[in-house]
Write a structure and sequence with these properties.
heterodimer, A: mainly alpha, MetI-like fold, two-stranded antiparallel ribbon, flat, disordered N terminus, B: about 375 residues, alpha/beta, D-Maltodextrin-Binding Protein, domain 2, 10-stranded mixed beta sheet, 15 helices, globular, ABC transporter permease subunit (chain A), transmembrane (chain A)
């Protein structure tokens, strides 16, 4: 009897060891919890995690060249990388092109390879398209036939690109997204000055988001403070004023800003009518950075006001009275007692506003002109117009990682558990 | 990405829902993708309505997705769920889609109606307009347009050169935010003969020259992205010049009565037309529709509603008056000899080869 008690520890009333019984109860609880969050988890996996994974995969995926010209790539292994390759490589290329033309259209790779190569070298697409139409009539020596068909086959750069990019994964989208390119020796160097876009655009996106963050804070803090001191009835009225634009369609709000801000718009007309400015000196309030800043500050203001308000509402007014009764001047009491208590709200509002504005694109596209554009406008352009999805995916992944790093830094400096979203 | 997953889910649902075989006279829903606005309206009245009247079992559903047609076609092909039956798109994108095998090759003489006098389709359509997978409908052009109220009567701009002459023709200029058309005009205004423009633009010096010319008006430029923005900016008096599609400019000036003058000098001419996505569900019905909608009379009819030129030579003499306004449409067509005196025909081969590089350069230039 004694032995059994010591070996299995405590038992429950029905003779089961307590440990196992507790474990079982715990397991049921965990399963219930999982069943409750399960649908949302599955939804997130399908709609959120999986597409992000796909995006990241697409930023390095490089199937076009390996699938289009396997024989040529094999023949290219003999090539020393200097000048032009020899006849066997061109013969293999002719064979690859003929084999590709035999395939059903949906399975052909030549056209896709042309599009892919054109990202690296202008004119490559034309070279592939024109040559693959003529390749049936080619006779040995193939090298001459190819050189006659298109000048690019005599360009060593094209062959270097084929050798470098002739593998299933590529870093070249990231290289391009960092405004860099490969030089003739295969080293990564900065791009020609007049083709650099993305690094400065990332910088501008961060700067604009920072300015918008500061403005929403500067405007939102007093409003939230005032609302928190009002009796409920009036506070609710003000709250509706904050929320009403929040419930209005984004496009409607943006277009309203266009009506207000344009050179023949309400603000300029009023300024001219009141003789602040003459008719030919109208302010340029939009189609530039100001437009983006003004419209986005307005659109994102509720994201700052709401968390601030909910935090301020819960700060007992007695704290300020206590500070004052202990001899603090109103400003000192505010600075030393009240303000530190609002920090969780500032943190939450700040993170929300900053992260949302980093990824914004409709408003900058409509009111930002050239200087008010952000990185997401470039991503959208590559998704929809230039159709360079690999580059769009690389830019998108960099943006995602950037936001994660910022959030991590915020967490280290302030602590994410101090966030208070309302 | 999100939409891809969604369409994949939709595909599964659709496969489960369809099940049986569709018979010829069962109701058919045909999704036709086009550009929206006045353009879709013109197709509705010239093609869709008469076709649906003759074929009561067909319902045509309009989708305004043409601005991103290639992206949509790719996504549908990759998800294996082709929901578009017929797509209106530009020939450059059509060539890409054709190379990728996601739209059907077209045998023009076998699939399309001959001209009334028996000329086969391949000879009736304007030279150079037919593509491997592409059936042209219209000729449109990108034109420079001015708001004539912004200039004194004796000093109205009339040429592309005036677009680049800020001193004599002050005011802001609305240009599209892409290199195509802008670089051509910069060189044309800088004195390059029309037939040499693309040769010059293919050289690094030529590109530098075009950007240097654009630099001279840079601080006066407002960029537009969507086709509807250009006439809006011009009507609001935000800009004095705007580039835009001639049909939209026609609609603004003639239908809405805006004080616009189109400058036909250096108009940039291009085709627009139909492609058929591969593996669509209603291919037979779509081919039947195309035979009808691209015949001589139908193409001429479309010109009653919008000022784009029909792509068939035999349609030109049949172009009559605007259906609602009653004005002669001839003088508003880009291809009218009075307007076609200095056209730049958009070179799609050039843009296929140099587009990627020039787009980057242009984006960089815009950001500077």
């Amino acid at each position: 009897m004694d032995d059994q008690t010591t070996s299995s520890g405590l038992v429950t009333a029905d003779g089961q060891p307590l440990k196992r019984s507790l474990q079982r109860a715990e397991r049921t609880r965990k399963l219930t919890a999982l069943a409750l969050v399960g649908p949302l988890l599955a939804f997130l996996l399908v709609i959120f995690i999986f597409p992000i994974g796909q995006m990241m995969w697409r930023s390095v995926d490089n199937p076009q060249i390996v699938n289009a010209i396997p024989r040529t790539l094999e023949a290219l292994q003999e090539w020393d990388g200097e000048g032009l390759p020899d006849e066997p490589v061109y013969a293999a290329l002719a064979e690859d092109m003929r084999a590709d033309a035999e395939l059903p259209r949906r399975e052909q790779w030549m056209g896709r390879m042309g599009v892919r190569l054109n990202y690296e070298l202008s004119g490559a697409r034309g070279a592939i398209a024109r040559t693959s139409r003529a390749v049936d009539e080619f006779e040995p020596p193939f090298k001459e036939a190819f050189l006659d068909a298109h000048r690019n086959w005599g360009n060593p750069e094209l062959w270097q690109i084929l050798e470098r990019e002739g593998r299933p994964l590529t870093a070249s989208y990231y290289v391009a997204a960092l405004d860099r390119e490969y030089d003739s020796e295969g080293k990564i160097v900065l791009r020609d000055e007049n083709r650099r876009i993305y690094v400065s655009l990332f910088g501008r996106t961060l700067a604009l988001s920072g300015i918008i963050l500061f403005l929403t804070f500067a405007l939102g803090f007093p409003i939230a403070f005032y609302m928190s001191t009002l009796p409920m009835r009036y506070a609710n009225l003000l709250m509706i004023c904050v929320l009403l634009p929040f419930w209005t369609s984004l496009l409607v709000r943006t277009t309203s800003w266009i009506v207000l801000l344009q050179q023949q718009g309400v603000i300029n007309n009023a300024a001219v009518a009141m003789n602040f400015i003459s008719d030919d000196q109208r302010y340029s309030l939009m189609y530039n950075m100001q437009g983006t800043i003004i419209a986005m500050t307005h659109i994102l203001l509720p994201f700052m006001v709401l968390p601030l308000y909910s935090v301020m509402k819960n700060i007992p007014p007695s704290y300020m009275r206590a500070a004052k009764s202990l001899g603090a001047k109103p400003w000192t009491a505010f600075r030393r007692v009240y303000f530190p208590l609002t920090l969780p709200g500032i943190g939450a509002g700040g993170v929300l506003v900053f992260i949302i504005s980093i990824g914004y694109y409709i408003t900058p596209a409509l009111v930002g002109g050239q200087s008010g554009r952000m990185i997401s406008n470039e991503i959208a352009r590559h998704m929809q117009q230039s159709l360079n999805w690999g580059l769009a995916a690389a830019l998108g992944s960099m943006l995602l990682v950037g936001v994660l790093i910022l959030y991590w830094a915020y967490n280290r400096l302030v602590g994410a558990d101090s966030l208070k979203l309302g | 990405m999100k939409t891809r997953t969604m369409t994949a889910l939709g595909a599964a649902a659709a496969i489960m829902a369809v099940g049986g075989v569709v018979k010829a006279d069962d109701p058919v829903n045909m999704t036709v993708v086009s550009w929206g606005g006045a353009y879709t309206e013109s197709q509705q009245r010239a093609y869709h309505d008469p076709y649906m009247e003759a074929n009561p079992h067909v319902t045509i559903i309009n989708d305004d997705g043409s601005a991103n047609a290639l992206a949509g076609l790719r996504a549908q092909a990759q998800a294996g769920n082709v929901t578009w039956d017929l797509v209106d798109m530009l020939p450059s994108d059509a060539q890409l889609a054709c190379d990728e095998g996601i739209i059907m090759p077209i045998d023009h003489d076998a699939m399309l109606a001959p001209a009334p006098d028996g000329t086969p389709a391949s000879e009736d359509f304007l030279p150079g307009s037919l593509g491997e997978c592409f059936i042209p409908q219209i000729v449109y052009s990108t034109v420079l347009t001015v708001n004539h109220e912004q200039f004194p009567d004796d000093k109205q701009p009339t040429t592309i050169e005036h677009l680049f002459d800020v001193e004599n023709y002050p005011g802001r200029r609305a240009l599209q935010d892409r290199p195509g058309t802008n670089l051509e005009w910069a060189l044309y205004a800088d004195g390059v003969p029309i037939e040499d423009i693309y040769d010059v633009l293919a050289t690094p010096e030529g590109v530098d020259r075009a950007f240097a010319k654009l630099d001279t008006i840079k601080e006066h430029i407002v960029f537009w992205t969507e086709g509807a923005q250009a006439p809006q900016l011009l009507a609001d008096g935000e800009v004095a010049f705007a580039t835009g599609y001639n049909g939209r400019m026609f609609a603004a000036s003639e239908v809405e009565g805006q004080p616009f003058d189109i400058i036909w000098d250096g108009q940039i001419v291009e085709w627009d037309g139909w492609v058929v996505p591969a593996d669509g569900e209603n291919v037979d019905q779509v081919m039947d529709y195309l035979y009808f909608a691209t015949d001589t009379q139908r193409l001429a009819d479309q010109a009653k509603y919008i000022s784009y030129g029909p792509a068939r030579a035999s349609s030109a003499p049949l172009v009559s008056t605007h259906a609602d306004l009653g004005i002669e449409m001839g003088p508003h067509m880009p291809t009218n000899p009075d307007n076609y005196y200095a056209p730049i025909v958009l070179n799609n081969d050039f843009w296929a080869d140099y587009g990627d590089e020039l787009r980057e350069r242009f984006a960089n230039w815009m950001l500077q």
